[in-house]
Every structure is written in C-alpha cells, then in structure tokens.
Design a protein that fits this description.
Structural class: mainly alpha
Number of helices: 5
Oligomer: single chain
Strand content: under 5%
Order of helices and strands: HHHHH
Radius of gyration: 16 Å
Shape: elongated
Helix content: 55-70%
Largest sheet: none
Number of domains: 1
Length: about 120
C-alpha cells in the first residue's frame, strides 16, 4: 500500500526523533517537514525520478529513501544525535546520492530496445 505525503512526513519525523509512536506531530514540525518533502519532490522531479504526483502516494518501495531524504533535509533544523544522523545517512548517503541511486534503480526500466520491434 503506497504512503501519502503525510505518512512519509510522519516517518521522516520519527527518523528525526520528533514524533513518538501514538502521538501527533506539532504544527510547526509538520510545516517544516512538509516543506522538506516538497523540496525533495522538486529535486527528484528535476532529475526525472518522481513517478508519483506531488500530492499523490509514494510507492512502497521508494518510501524508505524518500523519507530518508526528507529527514536529511531537516537535520540542520533539528539537532539530532550522532547515532540518529548515522542511521539517516546509512540510507541516504551524506549528500542524498545513495538514496537517489536506489530510487533511480527502482524507477528505471530494466531495458529498452533501441530497435523497432518486428511485427510477425
């Protein structure tokens, strides 16, 4: 089941330690992390890696990478421990390129023939 923007935002908030299980996200945190989601979406769009609408659902296989990129965007806003930062970076890479590489691998077709198909 694909995840909505709010669910991805909440997962990123959990990764940042801003959201505890069973609690609601504070409005200022929801706003900041929601903005980070929009930034990540725009960045992925510029690289041709977004296969969902900005208000649509993120495919399940992309959720860990997208939420990780959102969390990485917010690390400067929220002071996170070294261990928490390492967990985020282990998924995204220090600059986000590891997550983008995985997203690219998942959304790019395996092979496209350069030749026209033969109709028998």
């Amino acid at each position: 089941m694909a995840k909505t923007k709010a669910q991805v935002r909440d997962r990123a908030a959990t990764e940042l330690g801003r959201l505890r299980l069973g609690q609601a996200l504070q409005s200022q945190d929801a706003t900041r992390i929601g903005e980070a989601y929009d930034e990540v979406y725009a960045d992925l769009k510029s690289e041709g890696l977004n296969i969902w609408a900005s208000t649509g659902s993120v495919p399940d296989e992309l959720v860990p990478f997208v939420s990780g990129l959102v969390a990485l965007r917010c690390v400067g806003t929220y002071g996170v421990s070294r261990d928490r930062f390492q967990r985020i970076v282990s998924v995204t890479g220090i600059d986000g390129n590891l997550a983008k590489r995985e997203i690219r691998r998942l959304v790019t077709p395996a092979h496209e023939s350069a030749e026209e198909p033969t109709d028998f």
